[in-house]
Amino acid sequence: MKIVEVTKQLTVAITNEEADMLLQFDDETPVVAKGDLNERQQILANQLVNKNLLLRKNEDGRIIYKKRSG
Question: pLDDT tens digit string along 15-49?
């Protein structure tokens, strides 16, 4: 388990697998398309959306995930 700081006053516990998923979102890859993820990664991305750490957006008919800032 890891603890991630969402805001200065809010922290969230995530699994190591979810932490590895979050590491995919960096300066070089700020956005990941759902189609580029395997089935397990899609589940993890949705869990991170539910924990308010990722944003899920529909852009031009495709689902993308983006790290929530701040």
Answer: 999 999 999 988 888 999 999 999 999 999 999 99
Question: What pTM did the predictor assign?
Answer: 0.86
Distance from C-alpha of 59 to C-alpha of 33, rounded to nearest angstrom: 10
| Separation between Cα atoms, residue 63 and residue 6, nearest integer Å | 23
Report d(CA 34, CA 54) in Å as an integer.
12
Q: Let me know if 67 is exposed, middle or buried by CB neighbors in 10 A (0-12, 13-18, 19+).
A: middle
Strands of the sheet with 31-33, listed across from one edge: 31-33, 62-67, 54-59
Ranges of beta strands (E only) in the chain are 2-7, 10-14, 31-33, 54-59, 62-67
